[in-house]
Amino acid sequence: MIREAEGCAILARVFESRGYRIARDVGLEIGEVEFTADGWDAEAKVGFEYMTREAGDHVDLRPDEVTLLGQRMERGELFLLIIDESRIEIADDLEYAASSFLDEVDRRRGGADG
Asked: Which of 11, 25, 45, 61 is deepest in the core (most CB within 10 A)?
């Protein structure tokens, strides 16, 4: 598993390489959901949350809240990569997941590049 700081640094690097201006540890209130995103571009409404036990993320962002955020993503209101540490073993996998996510954001936005 990749620890919180390393995982967030990897994700920030991938997002920034695609043109996003990522602010770190941003408090967000999106409808009924309030949490601290590990990375967020407020203008593009794109960001990431790397869920780790180390950071207490599973308490900060509950499964029902993830579902509500997912509904907003389905409507294209925002795009938030939410990825659990237990699904990632090596940095290359995290980079791939982030790149694939951002490819999908571009596709859904009709080719816009952040």
From this structure: 11
Residue 27 falls in which region: left (phi positive, over 0), alpha (psi -120 to 50) or beta: beta
Domain ranges of the chain: 4-97
Write down the residue that tokens 């949490």 correspond to.
35
What is the model's pTM? 0.92
pLDDT tens digits along 30-63: 999 999 999 999 999 999 999 999 988 888 899 9
| Contacts of residue 110, Cβ cutoff 8 Å, sequence gap at least 6 | none
The two tokens of residue 82 are 């939410």
**Coil, strand or helix: which one is 73?**
helix
Question: Would you say 80 and 105 are in contact if contact means Cβ atoms under 8 Å apart?
Answer: no
**pLDDT single digits (tens) 62-109:** 999 999 999 999 999 999 999 999 999 999 999 999 999 999 999 999
Tokens, residue 99: 């790149």
CA atoms of 38 and 22, how far apart (whole Å) = 9
